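So, is this right?
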Amino acid sequence: MEVLRSSFSDMLPEIEEAIAECEFMALDVEFTGLNPASLATPRDIADTVQERYGKVRHQSLDFILCQFGLCTFRWNEQRREYEAKPFNFYLMPASSGIRGAPDRYFQCQASTIDFLARNGFDFTKWLGYGVHFMNWDEERLFRERRENEIANTLPGMQLDERGLQFEQHARQQIDRWLTTKEPSVSIACSNGYHYRIVYHLIQKSKRNAQKRAKMEADVAQAIGFRRVIDMMAQSRKPIVGHHMIMDLCQVYHHLYKSLPEQVDLFAAGILTLFPILLDTKYICMANPDIEMAEGRSIFRHSSAPTLPSMLERYVNRLYFVKSASMTCYNLMALALELFCRALNL
């Protein structure tokens, strides 16, 4: 199911329901590039974990994710099969049309753009109708910028000491009134000077309320697709992908917060976001009883490994799980069992 900016808000309840009902999810991400021109040395088999992470991190800083595929899988006990719900999101950073949103700069790689074009990627939908997104750090800066605008909407009056005391008293009364359902508020004014102060405060409160409502609407629009990532994270459900280190780095940097330089901090952070990760590439590498056929991973049924032995080999290969707690290890066992059931084993 294709999701664009115009349909995103209407689709959110269905997406939320699909995530809430599913046993696990699968994701796949498309980027604007894979190999940064500024990367001094390409990825090498001799890279340490830190070196390899640094190179993948570099890719996430230079390029952005332009398409996000999400598929939820719900087990139908009566039919003894999984029901899949796919969602395809075109993504474009929040900038144009939203005042105060950060204006991103990103690179594109010719070979990647050519690959996308040859595989049916719609650049018009991406550039013109992609769902906006921003991470938590950008949201904080966005809110600060807009709050400063609101604070400076009306300049303060030049008041003497008595005027400042009256203004503080009047503001407290107005603030209390705004939190109640009372139709009016009575503020005793002894002269025209006091009336002017009250009028100024009311005008400022009214305009600030209007601007704050507009700010919240703009923030919701700018956050956009990150709300889906927040739903996925809150569900704490297994997430399946193939060779998804770049996918995870892109999601972390553009939809969560800035990527740390140290791989151990990234590992801890990504497990905080998604505690159960299953990478089918590592599952295949860790198990000689899995064959690659026509781009799909399948077991030879005559020699399918037992779940405990498969899990043990898989855990020893996957760096993220090495950094996880025993609770995550137990959850991984459940997630891996679900994945095996999805392959009809």
